């Protein structure tokens, strides 16, 4: 012992190397066995450049064979009892637990992440996912009565958490009775192949899990294959392409995409803890984490002290061989990614940023660092660097912090550091992201839903709401819908015919508005009704975006308004029954009561992760939702769709039944007399497909419902811009009891998972929870 310096402490890797030497060339895992290895590529250890194995490039035929096997296995798998499926998941969890060391070393070799991370973070969380979902398989019948598996799920995962992403996707899918075809990332396929061996070992029925290796081309083939669902984690760009290519196919889709998450350090934060948070959030895993808090926003009054502490900590981080147990920062996954990181840093500096640390070195290594003086105009502000480099910006007030935090096209995660519960919870409520960590970072658990808002994607993975993504809800049978007649424009002032003046006006922002073009068309009822256009939709969206106080009224307040609407509708019952049918009016009144009842009862959940953490999963309105109504049941269809959306606090821009929008305008009169704030419901009549496409492409519209037999294809394609979730579903018999319920409420909200540790986190553990 001459010095106190670290000596090497390298994890033993001979078992993994023997395993690799024995296999050398890998085929795919299809229908319970490995195929012969075919043409492909090598996977390497990014830390040394050494070749680890030969991997087969999956062709469209390979994908088709895997999907066929999964399709064949699915009914039998779904027919097993929950307990039987649970036993398989349990056996997988146990076996992974026994192989923790082997899998950690294999992951570290293939990915370059420090062994400390794969051993202490990733693999234990993989185990947790399989145990947790074994539990879900057992209680599925109780918790999801009437729900059914979707069928075959195609799953595409990235390279940053290879086995963890696999677990995150496969565990809920198979617990729910689906079978899967998974494509690991081309840089990191090895733990997925080792997992395939575990499936064989535990005797998982053939075809339940299939693994096809390959690059983006294989991914494209899987997206196009005969699957019922695509679950994708990766870049926003590829997510967009997948959204476009699945449009109109009725494939269910979850997208977990990129982020540029804010890391807000308030004046009263525990600065030492916040600095540790930076280590866990941004430098952890070489910054190759979609939810990394890569935009540090720090209160100006403490910025100097915070930076001094940050720089001191930066100096103590050890960049080095990933298998060394004292390495903090390992290798970047691939030279392509290293070039991307260094290229973005160069651009940021050219645009006026100041890079502290962050030096690249020989091989695939980049030292941790951060860019100071980054304004929103600097490319580093908005571009995902996906490396161990944060940006740092100061703010003066909490309002400025929130406006900077939300100044992003993404909305994946946010970290908030403040010792005041009032301040932290206030910011947590305002930040637009799917996950919020208060006084901590990168806390994950199988019970805690994870996923994004805005261009970070949609859908959640983990816990109860994650399972919903792998289940088909019980639904009323589809009902036939009248094909709409193209609305024929009648010029302004063409005479009112049977129509009355008010039907020639749209309903926008709580007031009647003449349509932009001044034209009308004749409805099936004979009335002249307004012919809305693109500009009218834009005006309606603008009005809806100003209706934020509706959400702030709370469930009880909203319920009161909805009861009042029902009451006023019942006052006009006789008159409207004459026009729209007695049954429709009576059911509409009941439906308004139903969703008013739900308004303050559709609760979030407090989920159990680990003791010592308060984790709340909170339903949040989307904001502005576009709604294209069926060309049928003009009164009841409209009420059945608008009511759940507004009960949950959304503002709606609705396109009523194309041939017969009069009922919706009749309701607008009732809204006016029922204290519904202006802008909460807006009605633009006209050509449904054309108007729906405008809603789909509009960035301020955060979600879209499209009811109808035809046209979903076009709106889903048009929605790729801001990646809004689109729910397309067929018309149904709206008079039935099963045309209402949770199924509609589940689609009216997005989930925010807020983590709050009780008290301080134990010293020395950092804030990462596994
Ligand atoms: P990527 O999105 O291209 O790759 C992710 C997965 O999708 C891989 O399995 C890949 O083979 C597959 N894929 C690629 N193109 C596809 C296509 N057209 N259709 C279907 N599947 C396809 O991400 P990449 O190129 O590895 O990384 C680029 C950037 O993406 C990173 O620098 C980072 O900014 C972001 N990224 C985000 C991740 C996240 O966790 N949200 C994970 C990985 C990357």
In short:
By secondary structure, the protein is of the alpha/beta class. 40% of the residues lie in helices and 18% in strands.
At the first level of CATH, the class of the largest domain is Alpha Beta
Radius of gyration: 27 Å
| The CATH topology of the largest domain | Aldehyde Dehydrogenase, Chain A, domain 1
Give the beta-strand count.
Answer: 34
Looking at CATH, the homologous superfamily of the largest domain is Aldehyde Dehydrogenase, Chain A, domain 1
Kindly give the count of domains. 3
How are strands sequenced across the largest beta sheet?
14-17-18-13-12-19-20-34-28-27
Residues in helix, %: 40-55%
Give the averaged pLDDT, no decimals.
Answer: 94
Task: Explain the overall architecture.
The strands form 9 sheets. Strands 14-17-18-13-12-19-20-34-28-27 form a 10-stranded mixed β-sheet, with helices on both faces. Strands 9-8-7-10-11-21 form a 6-stranded mixed β-sheet, sandwiched between helices. The protein has 3 domains: 243 residues, 3-Layer(aba) Sandwich (Aldehyde Dehydrogenase, Chain A, domain 1), CATH 3.40.605; 190 residues, Aldehyde Dehydrogenase, Chain A, domain 2; 249 residues, Aldehyde Dehydrogenase, Chain A, domain 1. The protein is of the alpha/beta class. Helix content is 40%, strand content 18%. About 1% of the residues have low confidence. Helix 3 packs antiparallel against helix 5 and helix 20 packs across helix 21. The chain binds 1,4-dihydronicotinamide adenine dinucleotide. 1,4-dihydronicotinamide adenine dinucleotide binds next to helix 8 and helix 9.
